[in-house]
Amino acid sequence: MALVESKGLILFAKDHKEKDKLVKIFTESAGKQMFYVRGAHRKNNPLQPAMMPFTEATYIGQFSDQGLSFLNAAKFIHPFRQIQSDIFLAGYATYLLNLTDAAIEDRVYDPHLYQFLKEALLFIDQGKDAEVITNIFEVQILQRFGVQFDWMRCAICGETKGKFDFSSKYNGLLCEKHWHMDERRYHADPRAVYFLQVFHQIGYHQIDHIQISSEIKNEIRKLLDALYDEYVGIHLKSKSFIDQMKTWNQVLKPKED
Ligand SMILES: [Zn+2]
Fold first, then answer.
1. Listed residues 19, 52, 79: the one ending a domain
2. Residue 37 within any structural domain of the chain
């Protein structure tokens, strides 16, 4: 196998045997790859900083078409330092990494998703609202799970203005006039539906212009959870961790909003 070089984001690393590690990296040029790193725990192993959680680097190694890949070296190591040192930010970032891992198969070339994930981590690292960034990520990555809705108009009449709810019967939005067509519609807060419409079409840099109260954030969370339950159906530990974390958050920051 020839040596290959690619930027990559650490998805996770786990110990293997006494001295080795398995490190899963989302590479920009060859998709997700599992790397076997012999002697990873050896003192002064130069690869150590490049294997830390929440790191981007340029990885050099043998990238395999099947089975394990091997890591030889790394350069241009960029740790996301704020995420590494903050348990709340790390919680959100871990969830985004796990979602990415779940959304596409190994070795599938997906530079758009790579960039989208990297930007999310950069913005969280810069102190932007991690909850909103996570929500934008969750809405836009739905299509990688094979889930696509028309977020812009009523599934029955095409109406684009007014209040909307979500209907699984129609696989999309219903305007207020057509709510009666599905008694089992989500009964979501129309403001939460509105923000998902917005999140579907904005970049992370645009969130500076958005103010969302914690009440509406909770409604957005409920709606996304319902959509993920019904259409994606995965249960990630890191997601439960975020949900728990939100209750600590209220304890630590009682005056917010
Ligand atoms: Zn309608």
1. 79
2. yes
Cα(144) to centroid of ligand 1, in Å? 27
DSSP bridge pairs for 21: 15, 37
Within a domain: residue 193?
A: yes
Quick one: which of 124, 131, 35 has its CA closest to 81? Answer: 124
Number of domains in the chain: 2
**Is the entire prediction scored with pTM above 0.70?**
yes
User: From ligand 1's centre to the CA of 161, what distance in Å?
Assistant: 10
Residue 8, token pair as written in the block: 């990559």
Closest CA to 145 of 103, 195, 93, 176: 103
pLDDT single digits (tens) 248-257: 766 655 555 5
Same domain (yes/no): 102, 11? no
70, 123: one domain: no
Q: Which helix (H) or strand (E) holds 218?
A: helix 214-227
Compute the distance from residue 176 Cα to the ligand 1 centre, in Å: 7
CATH number at residue 220: 1.20.1440.120
* Domain end residue (candidates: 79, 113, 131): 79
Instruction: Measure 223 CA to ligand 1 centroid, in angstroms.
Output: 20
- Ligand 1 centroid to residue 133 C-alpha, Å: 30
Ion ligand 1 residue ranges (Cβ < 5 Å) = 154, 156-157, 159, 175, 177-178
pLDDT in tens, 56-107: 999 999 999 888 999 999 999 999 999 999 999 999 999 999 999 999 999 9
Query: Which is more confident, 209 or 231?
Result: 231
